[in-house]
Amino acid sequence: MSEQYDLIVVGSGAAGLSVALGSGGGLRVAVVSRGVAGLDGATCWAQGGLAAAVGQGDSAGQHAVDTITAGARHNHKSAVRWMTESAPDVLRWLLAMGMQFDTVNGRIALGREAAHTFPRILHAGGDATGAELARVLREAAMRQSWIDRHEFADACEILKHGNQAVGVLVRNRRGEQMRLLAPSVVLATGGIGQLYRHTSNPAEADGSGLALAHVAGAELVDLEFVQFHPTALSPRADDPSTQLPLVTEALRGAGCQLINDQGARFMVAASSQAELAPRDVVARAVYDQLTRGNRVFLDVRPLGDRVRAQFPNFVQICAQRGLDPRVQPIPIVPAAHYHMGGIKVDLHSMSRVPGLYAVGEVACTGVHGANRLASNSLLEAIAFGKALGERLAQRGPVAPITRVDPVVGHAARAESTNDQMVLGRLRQLMWSDVGIVRSSESLQSALGQIQVLERRCLAGAPVLRQLTTARLIVEACLRRRESLGAHYIGGATHAHWSPRSGQAVA
Ligand SMILES: Cc1cc2nc3c(=O)[nH]c(=O)nc-3n(C[C@H](O)[C@H](O)[C@H](O)COP(=O)(O)OP(=O)(O)OC[C@H]3O[C@@H](n4cnc5c(N)ncnc54)[C@H](O)[C@@H]3O)c2cc1C
Predict the structure, then answer these.
(1) 421 found inside a domain
(2) Are residues 119 and 200 in the same domain?
(3) 506 falls in which pLDDT band (50, 70, 90)?
(4) Does the pLDDT of residue 167 top 50, yes or no?
(5) Which residues line ligand 1 (CB under 6 A)?
(6) Mean pLDDT, the chain, as a whole number?
(7) Measured distance CA(34)–CA(257) in Å, rounded
């Protein structure tokens, strides 16, 4: 079965819905999502906020400088500049759709976050910014008769005719496949956190969009740059869930200390800034404790009863685990949080495959460089998404797609228990060997094990998408021999690796 559109958007987070809404009504648009449109993906989980240099004394130029400093100067400077300059336009657009930002004395409140030199973080509902953003975008999309939602649908393959992307093969909940055809296909499938044992990302963020793009011939870049959040609530030993609630960094800002199970405050030895060191420094120190066999806790007890008033969400997530932060230290682990790398796109969000575009976390515009500045990802997703929708709308409706090449058969099968077992193994492997601290040996070992897992899967198994993405990440890690930004090589010397032979050669 086939359906014709002018534009297909895979993903209904901030990026995907901004593309769809940005196209403005002149096109017939399909939005494909794995869950309820607008309510799945990472967007609705975003807590911190949205960065925009709109405060007194602040400027897009200064926002760009902060972004490039955080990104270890690996950023694409024109993309950074374009994004920071787009912020006022993004805000006007969201406000016109009814987004309720937090205010002080009738003006939008601007919060300050680590590594931002000015207060420029807009919040909604305190730490519920993503939920409010998702509400606004979802409600706006639901009002448009020209947007068709394909919910609980899994995109299995990019359809092509010759070199051109011409649609997407999707599988619905009943396992039925359908061809959605259009001359413009946008991937907005989010991040990769679910490739790791511990992550802040929801189930949909499993890197499948990267595998789809790779099979379709798109170039993927900077895949080695994965940001880890230092403090997520540790799961119980018997809890298999991979998505963990974040423990806000503001607690450390309020004086709470990280301790191990001997009560030692290990951050004092790790950094002169102790608990207030940058995210990746804290994440590595916590990880170091875990690899020594210690457990790690955030000691919130000095805040006493004040924690209830100041951090009600934190108290609530602790209570759900039967923990009381007023009387006991709270167990934490680091968690895979954000992927800086992705499908290489230009300033117009175009990949190298004609007709195939990417926006949001799955794309690599080069904005984040080797490490993301907090609260820049929502801005990037909306700014680039909206602009792409507007640009595609200028072309107007197009002739129906009549010719499609035979499908490759990627993810053609239904998910099996074997897929789940392989995914569990992959997550452990990515966590231990391709995680916060990497070495030549750990990466080589991971590559070999992933290749074995790939050989053990039947052709068309859905988990092959995750294995493909994971393998591409490991290969990217092996190519980058020095530590940079979020890519940290520790311990053993990193040998040169030959992509042709797949062997370390020296
Ligand atoms: C806990 C948490 C807190 C965060 N806090 C902040 C913050 O304060 N500020 C900030 O800027 N950023 C924050 N981030 C990051 C930010 O939320 C994400 O980078 C951003 O929301 C990504 O948006 P997106 O539209 O690219 O992807 P998502 O919102 O993740 O949406 C992905 C979409 O793709 C769909 N999809 C995926 N694969 C397929 C497939 N194969 N077939 C069909 N559909 C598919 C999903 O169903 C979903 O609809 C946070 C992230 C997390 C997890």
Answers:
(1) yes
(2) yes
(3) very low
(4) yes
(5) 10-16, 32-35, 40-43, 45-50, 129-130, 153-155, 188-190, 200-201, 204-205, 208-209, 246, 338, 360-361, 375-378, 381
(6) 93
(7) 39
Does residue 312 sit in the same domain as residue 375? no
Q: What is the pLDDT of residues 126-152, one digit of tens each?
A: 888 999 999 999 999 999 999 999 999
The domain containing residue 492 runs over which residues? Answer: 417-504
Closest residue to atom 38 of ligand 1, CA basis? 189
Tens of pLDDT, residue by residue over 350-394, are 999 999 999 999 999 999 999 999 999 999 999 999 999 999 999
* Helices 14-22, 129-142: crossing angle, 10 deg rounding: 30
Total domain count for the chain?
3
Q: Is residue 204 part of a domain?
A: yes
Q: Which atom of ligand 1 is nearest to the CA of 14?
A: 25
Q: Known catalytic residues?
A: 279
- CA of 18, closest atom in ligand 1: 25
Report the nearest atom of ligand 1 relative to the CA of 134: 29
In this structure, the answer to whether residues 354 and 314 fall within a common structural domain is no
CATH of residue 496's domain is 1.20.58.100
Residue-wise DSSP of 272-283: TTGGGS-HHHHH
For ligand 1, the distance from its centroid to the CA atom of residue 361, given in whole angstroms, is 7
Ligand 1 atom nearest 199 alpha carbon = 53
The DSSP line for 64-99 is HHHHHHHTTT-S-HHHHHHHHHHHHHHHHHHHHTT-
The pLDDT, as a whole number, for residue 491 is 64
In the prediction, which pLDDT does 218 show? 98
What is the 215 CA–ligand 1 centroid distance (Å)? 22
Of all protein residues, the one whose alpha carbon is nearest to atom 51 of ligand 1 is: 46
| The total number of residues written for the chain in this structure | 506
- Can you list the positions of beta strands (E) in 273-399? 296-299, 330-339, 342-344, 356-358, 363-364
Say which CATH number the domain at 278 has.
Answer: 3.90.700.10
How far, in Å, is the centroid of ligand 1 from the Cα of 382? 12
Span from the CA of 322 to the centroid of ligand 1 (angstroms): 29
Residue 170, φ and ψ in degrees, nearest 5: -120, 155
Task: Indicate which CATH number applies to the domain containing 44.
Answer: 3.50.50.60
